[in-house]
Amino acid sequence: NSDKLSSARFAQATNAFVEVFTASVDFDKRMAEQDIQGSIAHATMLSACGILTGQECDAIIEGLSRIRQEIGSGQFTWSIKQEDVHMNIEARLTDLIGIAGKKLHTGRSRNDQVATDIRLYLRSEISHISDQLIRLQTAILNLAEQTADTIMPGFTHLQVAQPITFGHHLMAWFEMLNRDHERLQDCCKRINIMPLGAAALAGTSYPINRFMTAELLGFSRPSANSLDSVSDRDFAIEFTAAASLIMMHLSRFSEELILWSSAQFDFIDIPDAFCTGSSIMPQKKNPDVPELVRGKSGRVTGHLVSLLMLMKSQPLAYNKDNQEDKEPLFDTVDTVINCLRAYADMMPHITPKKANMYTSAKRGFATATDLADYLVRKGMAFRDAHEVVGLAVRLGVDTGRDLSEIALTELQQFSSLISDDVFEYLTLEGSVAARSHIGGTAPDTVRAAIDTARKNLTDA
Ligand code: ARG
Predict the structure, then answer these.
(1) Is this model's pTM higher than 0.90 or not?
(2) Among the options 73, 157, 279, 437, which is catalytic?
(3) ipTM more than 0.90?
Protein backbone atom coordinates (compact mmCIF):
# COMPACT_ATOMS: atom_id res chain seq x y z
CA ASN A 1 0.00 0.00 0.00
CA SER A 2 1.86 3.04 -1.28
CA ASP A 3 -0.29 5.47 0.76
CA LYS A 4 0.60 3.88 4.03
CA LEU A 5 2.63 6.01 6.40
CA SER A 6 6.17 4.62 6.77
CA SER A 7 5.06 1.94 4.39
CA ALA A 8 8.49 0.32 4.15
CA ARG A 9 8.22 -0.93 7.69
CA PHE A 10 4.98 -2.76 7.06
CA ALA A 11 4.47 -6.04 5.27
CA GLN A 12 0.68 -5.74 5.43
CA ALA A 13 -1.74 -3.06 4.29
CA THR A 14 -3.83 -1.49 7.05
CA ASN A 15 -7.09 -3.25 7.80
CA ALA A 16 -9.78 -1.32 5.94
CA PHE A 17 -11.82 -0.61 9.03
CA VAL A 18 -8.77 0.37 11.09
CA GLU A 19 -7.89 2.88 8.40
CA VAL A 20 -11.23 4.59 8.90
CA PHE A 21 -11.16 4.06 12.65
CA THR A 22 -7.80 5.74 13.18
CA ALA A 23 -8.23 8.61 10.72
CA SER A 24 -8.88 12.10 12.04
CA VAL A 25 -8.94 14.11 8.84
CA ASP A 26 -12.73 14.46 8.86
CA PHE A 27 -12.46 16.70 11.89
CA ASP A 28 -8.87 17.93 12.13
CA LYS A 29 -9.01 19.48 8.65
CA ARG A 30 -10.48 22.37 10.55
CA MET A 31 -6.88 23.24 11.53
CA ALA A 32 -5.63 23.35 7.92
CA GLU A 33 -4.87 27.07 8.02
CA GLN A 34 -2.84 26.71 11.22
CA ASP A 35 -1.05 23.67 9.79
CA ILE A 36 -0.03 25.71 6.75
CA GLN A 37 1.11 28.66 8.87
CA GLY A 38 3.18 26.34 11.05
CA SER A 39 4.76 24.66 8.01
CA ILE A 40 5.65 27.97 6.37
CA ALA A 41 7.37 29.14 9.56
CA HIS A 42 9.14 25.79 9.98
CA ALA A 43 10.43 25.84 6.37
CA THR A 44 11.53 29.47 6.69
CA MET A 45 13.52 28.62 9.81
CA LEU A 46 15.03 25.47 8.22
CA SER A 47 16.27 27.52 5.31
CA ALA A 48 17.62 30.33 7.54
CA CYS A 49 19.58 27.66 9.41
CA GLY A 50 20.96 26.16 6.18
CA ILE A 51 18.98 22.92 6.53
CA LEU A 52 16.93 23.62 3.39
CA THR A 53 18.08 25.71 0.42
CA GLY A 54 16.39 29.02 -0.33
CA GLN A 55 14.94 27.48 -3.49
CA GLU A 56 13.45 24.55 -1.61
CA CYS A 57 11.95 26.92 0.92
CA ASP A 58 10.44 29.11 -1.79
CA ALA A 59 8.94 26.08 -3.51
CA ILE A 60 7.45 24.89 -0.20
CA ILE A 61 5.91 28.27 0.56
CA GLU A 62 4.52 28.56 -2.95
CA GLY A 63 3.10 25.06 -2.80
CA LEU A 64 1.53 25.65 0.60
CA SER A 65 -0.02 28.92 -0.59
CA ARG A 66 -1.53 27.08 -3.52
CA ILE A 67 -2.90 24.41 -1.15
CA ARG A 68 -4.36 27.15 1.02
CA GLN A 69 -6.24 28.40 -2.04
CA GLU A 70 -7.40 24.93 -3.01
CA ILE A 71 -8.77 24.39 0.48
CA GLY A 72 -10.38 27.82 0.59
CA SER A 73 -12.18 27.27 -2.69
CA GLY A 74 -13.29 23.75 -1.82
CA GLN A 75 -11.12 22.14 -4.51
CA PHE A 76 -8.80 20.22 -2.20
CA THR A 77 -9.40 16.48 -2.07
CA TRP A 78 -9.16 15.19 1.47
CA SER A 79 -8.37 11.53 1.74
CA ILE A 80 -8.82 9.21 4.66
CA LYS A 81 -5.87 7.22 3.32
CA GLN A 82 -3.70 10.13 4.40
CA GLU A 83 -5.09 9.82 7.95
CA ASP A 84 -5.02 13.42 9.16
CA VAL A 85 -4.77 17.05 8.12
CA HIS A 86 -0.97 17.01 8.40
CA MET A 87 -0.40 14.06 6.07
CA ASN A 88 -3.03 15.26 3.60
CA ILE A 89 -1.34 18.62 3.18
CA GLU A 90 2.15 17.14 3.05
CA ALA A 91 1.14 14.58 0.41
CA ARG A 92 -0.46 17.24 -1.75
CA LEU A 93 2.63 19.44 -1.36
CA THR A 94 4.82 16.62 -2.69
CA ASP A 95 2.39 16.12 -5.60
CA LEU A 96 2.76 19.79 -6.42
CA ILE A 97 6.47 20.45 -5.92
CA GLY A 98 8.16 17.05 -5.80
CA ILE A 99 11.24 16.33 -3.71
CA ALA A 100 11.27 19.65 -1.79
CA GLY A 101 7.85 18.70 -0.41
CA LYS A 102 9.36 15.57 1.08
CA LYS A 103 11.94 17.70 2.90
CA LEU A 104 9.43 19.83 4.81
CA HIS A 105 9.14 17.29 7.62
CA THR A 106 12.90 17.51 8.39
CA GLY A 107 13.43 18.07 12.11
CA ARG A 108 9.73 17.83 12.83
CA SER A 109 7.18 15.22 13.87
CA ARG A 110 3.41 15.24 13.70
CA ASN A 111 3.61 15.24 17.49
CA ASP A 112 5.05 18.74 17.79
CA GLN A 113 3.17 19.76 14.64
CA VAL A 114 -0.28 18.89 16.00
CA ALA A 115 0.46 20.50 19.37
CA THR A 116 1.45 23.69 17.52
CA ASP A 117 -1.63 23.61 15.30
CA ILE A 118 -4.01 23.31 18.25
CA ARG A 119 -2.33 26.20 20.05
CA LEU A 120 -2.51 28.43 16.97
CA TYR A 121 -6.12 27.40 16.41
CA LEU A 122 -7.18 28.11 20.00
CA ARG A 123 -5.35 31.41 20.06
CA SER A 124 -7.34 32.61 17.07
CA GLU A 125 -10.68 31.22 18.29
CA ILE A 126 -10.22 32.85 21.69
CA SER A 127 -10.04 36.20 19.99
CA HIS A 128 -13.38 35.46 18.28
CA ILE A 129 -14.90 34.41 21.60
CA SER A 130 -13.63 37.61 23.21
CA ASP A 131 -15.23 39.66 20.44
CA GLN A 132 -18.63 38.06 21.16
CA LEU A 133 -18.13 38.48 24.90
CA ILE A 134 -17.51 42.20 24.42
CA ARG A 135 -20.59 42.53 22.19
CA LEU A 136 -22.69 40.94 24.92
CA GLN A 137 -21.12 43.05 27.66
CA THR A 138 -21.80 46.20 25.66
CA ALA A 139 -25.46 45.23 25.22
CA ILE A 140 -25.71 44.58 28.96
CA LEU A 141 -24.18 47.99 29.76
CA ASN A 142 -26.67 49.72 27.47
CA LEU A 143 -29.65 48.05 29.09
CA ALA A 144 -28.23 48.69 32.57
CA GLU A 145 -27.90 52.36 31.73
CA GLN A 146 -31.60 52.58 30.87
CA THR A 147 -32.55 50.78 34.07
CA ALA A 148 -30.11 52.19 36.65
CA ASP A 149 -33.07 53.46 38.69
CA THR A 150 -35.62 50.79 37.77
CA ILE A 151 -36.64 49.18 41.04
CA MET A 152 -37.22 45.44 41.20
CA PRO A 153 -37.25 42.89 44.00
CA GLY A 154 -33.87 41.33 44.73
CA PHE A 155 -34.10 37.68 45.68
CA THR A 156 -32.43 35.19 47.95
CA HIS A 157 -33.82 31.65 47.94
CA LEU A 158 -35.97 33.00 45.08
CA GLN A 159 -38.01 34.80 47.76
CA VAL A 160 -38.23 38.59 47.78
CA ALA A 161 -35.32 39.87 49.87
CA GLN A 162 -34.55 43.57 49.40
CA PRO A 163 -35.27 46.10 46.67
CA ILE A 164 -32.53 46.53 44.08
CA THR A 165 -32.37 48.16 40.68
CA PHE A 166 -32.59 46.20 37.46
CA GLY A 167 -29.42 47.97 36.30
CA HIS A 168 -27.62 46.68 39.38
CA HIS A 169 -28.75 43.14 38.63
CA LEU A 170 -27.51 43.43 35.05
CA MET A 171 -24.18 44.77 36.26
CA ALA A 172 -23.78 41.57 38.28
CA TRP A 173 -24.00 39.70 34.96
CA PHE A 174 -21.45 42.10 33.54
CA GLU A 175 -18.99 41.28 36.33
CA MET A 176 -19.38 37.54 35.70
CA LEU A 177 -18.51 38.05 32.03
CA ASN A 178 -15.57 40.27 32.97
CA ARG A 179 -14.03 37.42 34.93
CA ASP A 180 -14.64 35.13 31.94
CA HIS A 181 -12.79 37.56 29.76
CA GLU A 182 -9.86 37.68 32.19
CA ARG A 183 -9.73 33.90 32.39
CA LEU A 184 -9.48 33.61 28.61
CA GLN A 185 -6.69 36.18 28.51
CA ASP A 186 -4.85 34.38 31.26
CA CYS A 187 -5.18 31.01 29.59
CA CYS A 188 -3.74 32.56 26.40
CA LYS A 189 -0.44 33.08 28.22
CA ARG A 190 0.01 29.33 28.48
CA ILE A 191 -1.44 28.59 25.04
CA ASN A 192 1.04 30.92 23.41
CA ILE A 193 4.13 28.73 23.94
CA MET A 194 5.62 26.96 20.93
CA PRO A 195 6.12 23.17 20.81
CA LEU A 196 7.83 23.00 17.37
CA GLY A 197 11.33 21.59 17.60
CA ALA A 198 10.35 19.01 20.20
CA ALA A 199 9.87 16.73 17.18
CA ALA A 200 8.62 13.27 18.21
CA LEU A 201 9.60 13.68 21.87
CA ALA A 202 13.36 14.15 22.26
CA GLY A 203 14.10 17.15 20.07
CA THR A 204 16.06 16.97 16.84
CA SER A 205 19.69 16.63 15.82
CA TYR A 206 19.46 19.39 13.19
CA PRO A 207 20.82 22.84 14.09
CA ILE A 208 17.36 24.46 14.30
CA ASN A 209 16.50 27.87 15.73
CA ARG A 210 13.38 27.49 17.81
CA PHE A 211 13.35 31.16 18.83
CA MET A 212 13.05 32.13 15.21
CA THR A 213 10.09 29.82 14.54
CA ALA A 214 8.41 31.05 17.71
CA GLU A 215 8.80 34.63 16.61
CA LEU A 216 7.54 33.93 13.09
CA LEU A 217 4.37 32.39 14.54
CA GLY A 218 3.83 35.05 17.19
CA PHE A 219 4.47 32.70 20.12
CA SER A 220 5.98 34.28 23.21
CA ARG A 221 8.72 31.62 23.45
CA PRO A 222 9.64 28.03 22.59
CA SER A 223 8.55 25.42 25.14
CA ALA A 224 11.12 24.41 27.73
CA ASN A 225 10.97 20.61 27.60
CA SER A 226 10.54 18.47 24.50
CA LEU A 227 8.63 15.65 26.22
CA ASP A 228 6.24 18.05 27.87
CA SER A 229 5.75 19.91 24.58
CA VAL A 230 4.24 16.95 22.77
CA SER A 231 2.24 15.51 25.66
CA ASP A 232 0.84 18.64 27.30
CA ARG A 233 -2.84 19.39 26.73
CA ASP A 234 -3.31 21.40 29.95
CA PHE A 235 -3.93 24.51 27.88
CA ALA A 236 -6.88 22.84 26.14
CA ILE A 237 -8.33 21.78 29.48
CA GLU A 238 -7.87 25.27 30.91
CA PHE A 239 -9.60 26.75 27.91
CA THR A 240 -12.49 24.30 28.20
CA ALA A 241 -12.76 25.09 31.91
CA ALA A 242 -12.96 28.81 31.09
CA ALA A 243 -15.55 27.98 28.43
CA SER A 244 -17.54 25.90 30.93
CA LEU A 245 -17.66 28.87 33.27
CA ILE A 246 -18.91 31.10 30.46
CA MET A 247 -21.63 28.56 29.70
CA MET A 248 -22.48 28.16 33.38
CA HIS A 249 -22.92 31.93 33.56
CA LEU A 250 -25.08 31.96 30.43
CA SER A 251 -27.19 29.18 31.94
CA ARG A 252 -27.84 31.36 34.99
CA PHE A 253 -28.76 34.35 32.81
CA SER A 254 -31.03 32.01 30.86
CA GLU A 255 -32.78 30.76 33.96
CA GLU A 256 -33.52 34.34 35.04
CA LEU A 257 -34.70 35.47 31.61
CA ILE A 258 -37.01 32.46 31.43
CA LEU A 259 -38.47 33.18 34.86
CA TRP A 260 -38.77 36.91 34.22
CA SER A 261 -40.56 36.42 30.91
CA SER A 262 -43.15 34.09 32.45
CA ALA A 263 -46.66 35.41 33.14
CA GLN A 264 -46.01 34.88 36.85
CA PHE A 265 -43.06 37.31 36.97
CA ASP A 266 -43.74 39.37 33.83
CA PHE A 267 -40.62 41.53 34.37
CA ILE A 268 -39.40 41.54 30.77
CA ASP A 269 -40.43 40.94 27.21
CA ILE A 270 -38.21 38.80 24.99
CA PRO A 271 -38.77 39.88 21.38
CA ASP A 272 -40.71 37.55 19.07
CA ALA A 273 -37.65 37.15 16.85
CA PHE A 274 -35.95 35.18 19.62
CA CYS A 275 -38.93 33.06 20.62
CA THR A 276 -41.02 30.37 18.95
CA GLY A 277 -44.60 29.25 19.28
CA SER A 278 -46.17 25.94 20.14
CA SER A 279 -47.48 23.49 17.55
CA ILE A 280 -50.60 22.92 19.65
CA MET A 281 -51.11 25.84 22.07
CA PRO A 282 -51.90 28.99 20.10
CA GLN A 283 -51.14 31.37 22.98
CA LYS A 284 -47.56 30.18 23.56
CA LYS A 285 -44.44 32.26 23.11
CA ASN A 286 -41.53 30.19 24.31
CA PRO A 287 -38.12 31.63 25.31
CA ASP A 288 -36.22 29.21 23.07
CA VAL A 289 -32.90 31.02 22.91
CA PRO A 290 -32.32 31.13 26.69
CA GLU A 291 -33.63 27.57 27.05
CA LEU A 292 -31.35 26.19 24.37
CA VAL A 293 -28.34 28.03 25.77
CA ARG A 294 -29.15 26.65 29.23
CA GLY A 295 -29.27 23.18 27.68
CA LYS A 296 -26.03 23.61 25.78
CA SER A 297 -24.15 24.55 28.95
CA GLY A 298 -24.21 20.86 29.87
CA ARG A 299 -22.35 19.66 26.83
CA VAL A 300 -19.45 22.06 27.34
CA THR A 301 -18.96 20.89 30.93
CA GLY A 302 -19.15 17.38 29.48
CA HIS A 303 -16.27 18.22 27.15
CA LEU A 304 -14.22 19.51 30.08
CA VAL A 305 -14.67 16.21 31.85
CA SER A 306 -13.88 14.31 28.62
CA LEU A 307 -10.57 16.11 28.24
CA LEU A 308 -9.61 15.60 31.87
CA MET A 309 -10.37 11.89 31.53
CA LEU A 310 -8.48 11.74 28.24
CA MET A 311 -5.28 13.01 29.84
CA LYS A 312 -5.58 11.21 33.15
CA SER A 313 -2.92 8.49 33.58
CA GLN A 314 -1.33 8.96 30.14
CA PRO A 315 2.37 8.16 30.29
CA LEU A 316 4.78 10.59 28.61
CA ALA A 317 5.14 11.45 25.86
CA TYR A 318 2.70 11.48 22.90
CA ASN A 319 0.04 8.79 22.69
CA LYS A 320 -2.58 8.31 20.00
CA ASP A 321 -5.16 8.90 22.73
CA ASN A 322 -4.48 12.60 22.15
CA GLN A 323 -6.21 12.54 18.80
CA GLU A 324 -9.37 12.43 20.89
CA ASP A 325 -8.72 15.97 22.15
CA LYS A 326 -10.03 17.64 19.01
CA GLU A 327 -13.74 16.93 18.79
CA PRO A 328 -14.55 18.07 22.35
CA LEU A 329 -12.38 21.13 21.85
CA PHE A 330 -13.92 22.08 18.50
CA ASP A 331 -17.45 21.57 19.78
CA THR A 332 -16.64 23.69 22.82
CA VAL A 333 -15.46 26.53 20.58
CA ASP A 334 -18.54 26.32 18.34
CA THR A 335 -20.98 26.09 21.21
CA VAL A 336 -19.53 29.01 23.16
CA ILE A 337 -19.31 31.28 20.13
CA ASN A 338 -22.85 30.47 18.99
CA CYS A 339 -24.37 30.92 22.44
CA LEU A 340 -22.59 34.22 23.06
CA ARG A 341 -23.62 35.42 19.64
CA ALA A 342 -27.28 34.53 20.16
CA TYR A 343 -27.19 36.35 23.50
CA ALA A 344 -25.42 39.42 22.11
CA ASP A 345 -28.00 39.59 19.31
CA MET A 346 -30.94 39.18 21.69
CA MET A 347 -29.99 41.42 24.62
CA PRO A 348 -30.48 44.79 22.89
CA HIS A 349 -34.10 43.82 22.17
CA ILE A 350 -35.13 42.86 25.70
CA THR A 351 -37.75 45.22 27.09
CA PRO A 352 -37.89 45.72 30.85
CA LYS A 353 -41.44 46.02 32.22
CA LYS A 354 -40.62 48.58 34.86
CA ALA A 355 -44.08 48.98 36.42
CA ASN A 356 -44.42 45.23 36.97
CA MET A 357 -41.03 45.02 38.65
CA TYR A 358 -41.97 47.89 40.93
CA THR A 359 -45.29 46.35 41.95
CA SER A 360 -43.60 43.05 42.64
CA ALA A 361 -41.00 44.71 44.89
CA LYS A 362 -43.82 46.38 46.85
CA ARG A 363 -45.55 43.10 47.50
CA GLY A 364 -42.77 41.21 49.23
CA PHE A 365 -41.97 43.31 52.37
CA ALA A 366 -38.68 44.15 50.65
CA THR A 367 -38.05 47.07 53.03
CA ALA A 368 -38.26 45.03 56.23
CA THR A 369 -34.48 45.25 56.69
CA ASP A 370 -34.70 49.03 56.29
CA LEU A 371 -37.20 49.20 59.16
CA ALA A 372 -34.87 47.14 61.35
CA ASP A 373 -31.94 49.42 60.42
CA TYR A 374 -34.13 52.44 61.32
CA LEU A 375 -34.74 51.04 64.81
CA VAL A 376 -31.02 50.35 65.24
CA ARG A 377 -30.28 53.97 64.40
CA LYS A 378 -32.78 54.94 67.12
CA GLY A 379 -30.80 52.89 69.65
CA MET A 380 -32.30 49.37 69.55
CA ALA A 381 -30.02 46.32 69.31
CA PHE A 382 -30.23 44.66 65.87
CA ARG A 383 -31.58 41.31 67.18
CA ASP A 384 -34.39 43.12 69.04
CA ALA A 385 -35.14 45.20 65.96
CA HIS A 386 -35.32 41.98 63.88
CA GLU A 387 -37.96 40.70 66.31
CA VAL A 388 -40.02 43.91 66.24
CA VAL A 389 -40.05 44.04 62.44
CA GLY A 390 -41.04 40.37 62.34
CA LEU A 391 -44.19 41.29 64.30
CA ALA A 392 -44.93 44.20 61.95
CA VAL A 393 -44.52 41.95 58.88
CA ARG A 394 -46.86 39.39 60.41
CA LEU A 395 -49.49 42.13 60.84
CA GLY A 396 -48.92 43.11 57.19
CA VAL A 397 -49.34 39.52 56.01
CA ASP A 398 -52.50 39.04 58.11
CA THR A 399 -54.09 42.26 56.89
CA GLY A 400 -52.82 42.23 53.30
CA ARG A 401 -50.74 45.42 53.54
CA ASP A 402 -47.16 46.40 52.79
CA LEU A 403 -45.13 47.90 55.67
CA SER A 404 -45.49 51.38 54.18
CA GLU A 405 -49.28 50.99 54.27
CA ILE A 406 -49.53 50.27 58.00
CA ALA A 407 -50.57 53.29 60.07
CA LEU A 408 -48.04 54.98 62.35
CA THR A 409 -50.10 54.23 65.49
CA GLU A 410 -50.22 50.54 64.59
CA LEU A 411 -46.44 50.44 64.05
CA GLN A 412 -45.91 52.21 67.35
CA GLN A 413 -47.60 49.26 69.13
CA PHE A 414 -44.42 47.30 68.33
CA SER A 415 -41.93 49.97 69.39
CA SER A 416 -42.20 53.47 70.82
CA LEU A 417 -38.98 54.35 68.96
CA ILE A 418 -41.00 54.58 65.73
CA SER A 419 -42.07 58.09 64.72
CA ASP A 420 -43.48 59.66 61.56
CA ASP A 421 -40.05 59.92 59.88
CA VAL A 422 -40.18 56.12 59.47
CA PHE A 423 -42.05 56.27 56.17
CA GLU A 424 -39.19 57.77 54.22
CA TYR A 425 -37.20 54.61 55.05
CA LEU A 426 -40.02 52.28 54.08
CA THR A 427 -40.22 53.42 50.48
CA LEU A 428 -38.46 51.38 47.80
CA GLU A 429 -36.72 54.51 46.49
CA GLY A 430 -35.35 55.35 49.95
CA SER A 431 -34.17 51.79 50.44
CA VAL A 432 -32.10 51.60 47.24
CA ALA A 433 -30.81 55.18 47.53
CA ALA A 434 -29.41 54.41 50.99
CA ARG A 435 -27.07 51.73 49.58
CA SER A 436 -24.68 54.14 47.96
CA HIS A 437 -21.31 52.71 48.99
CA ILE A 438 -19.12 51.20 46.27
CA GLY A 439 -20.77 48.02 44.95
CA GLY A 440 -24.20 49.07 46.25
CA THR A 441 -27.53 49.28 44.41
CA ALA A 442 -28.18 53.06 44.67
CA PRO A 443 -28.99 54.44 41.19
CA ASP A 444 -26.08 56.94 41.23
CA THR A 445 -23.68 54.23 42.34
CA VAL A 446 -24.92 51.93 39.58
CA ARG A 447 -24.45 54.70 37.02
CA ALA A 448 -20.89 55.23 38.25
CA ALA A 449 -20.24 51.48 38.01
CA ILE A 450 -21.52 51.50 34.43
CA ASP A 451 -19.20 54.40 33.53
CA THR A 452 -16.17 52.65 34.95
CA ALA A 453 -17.14 49.39 33.25
CA ARG A 454 -17.55 51.10 29.91
CA LYS A 455 -14.11 52.70 30.18
CA ASN A 456 -12.44 49.42 31.10
CA LEU A 457 -14.22 47.62 28.29
CA THR A 458 -13.04 50.02 25.61
CA ASP A 459 -9.51 49.93 27.03
CA ALA A 460 -9.48 46.13 26.99
N1 ARG B 1 -3.69 13.00 14.09
C2 ARG B 1 -2.77 12.96 15.17
C3 ARG B 1 -3.41 13.63 16.39
O4 ARG B 1 -4.38 14.20 16.24
C5 ARG B 1 -1.51 13.68 14.82
C6 ARG B 1 -0.34 13.22 15.60
C7 ARG B 1 -0.02 11.83 15.17
N8 ARG B 1 1.17 11.36 15.76
C9 ARG B 1 1.45 10.08 15.83
N10 ARG B 1 2.55 9.74 16.38
N11 ARG B 1 0.61 9.17 15.41
O12 ARG B 1 -2.92 13.54 17.48
Answers:
(1) yes
(2) 157
(3) yes
